Automatic annotation (TrEMBL):
Family: Belongs to the SmpB family.
Origin superkingdom: Bacteria
Main location per the UniProt record: cytoplasm
Gene3D superfamilies tied to this protein: 2.40.280.10
The protein's role, per its UniProt record: Required for rescue of stalled ribosomes mediated by trans-translation. Binds to transfer-messenger RNA (tmRNA), required for stable association of tmRNA with ribosomes. tmRNA and SmpB together mimic tRNA shape, replacing the anticodon stem-loop with SmpB. tmRNA is encoded by the ssrA gene; the 2 termini fold to resemble tRNA(Ala) and it encodes a 'tag peptide', a short internal open reading frame. During trans-translation Ala-aminoacylated tmRNA acts like a tRNA, entering the A-site of stalled ribosomes, displacing the stalled mRNA.
UniProt keywords, alphabetically: Cytoplasm, RNA-binding
Any single biological process term in GO: trans-translation-dependent protein tagging
Source organism phylogeny: Bacteria, Candidatus Gottesmaniibacteriota
One matching Pfam family: SmpB
Protein name: SsrA-binding protein
Compositionally biased intervals (Basic and acidic residues): 130-151
Residue numbers spanned by region Disordered: 127-151
GO cellular component, one term: cytosol
Length: 151
């Protein structure tokens, strides 16, 4: 099971990534095993000396009791203290952001890959799309020259 935040790679330039653990409840684990999670609009926040995943939605497990369940609750991420301190320093010195890239299971544990990222401007996004289109056209031309009978 792997949940990917595709929007993060489009909106941000990824500088450095980290693997973190996540604190979950029992029904959340069951729901995650089924891939019922979205990272759209979520972000990572450092409060004190702890790291939290904010606004990530884990849909309720259908067979659990749904009373008082908040799908978008703030969840604690598990990192080494040295990593948290270095992240705090980097975030304070420049205009960087922490974004979740993906959530996956590693053996019996769920991990969240977070990244230190810098926001892209609108013109940078358009430029990247243009380069991608040009590259696609070039590859299409090369394929058609290799196999002239193919359209």
């Amino acid at each position: 099971m792997k949940v990917i935040n595709r929007r993060a790679r489009y909106d941000y330039e990824i500088l450095e990534s980290f693997e973190t653990g996540i604190v979950l409840t029992g029904p959340e684990v069951k729901s995650l095993r089924g891939g019922r999670m979205t990272l759209d609009g979520s972000f990572v926040k450092i409060i004190g000396s702890e790291v939290y995943l904010v606004n990530a939605q884990i849909f309720p497990y259908p067979y659990a009791r749904p009373e008082n369940y908040d799908p978008k609750r703030t969840r604690k991420l598990l990192m080494h203290k040295k990593e948290i301190i270095s992240l705090k320093i980097k975030l304070a010195s420049t205009d960087l952001t922490l974004v979740p890239l993906e959530c996956y299971n590693s053996k019996a544990y769920f991990k969240v890959k977070i990244a230190l990222a810098k926001g892209k401007k609108k013109y940078q996004k358009k430029e990247k799309l243009k380069r991608k289109d040009i590259q696609r056209d070039v590859e299409r031309e090369l394929r058609s020259k290799k196999d002239p009978g193919r359209i």
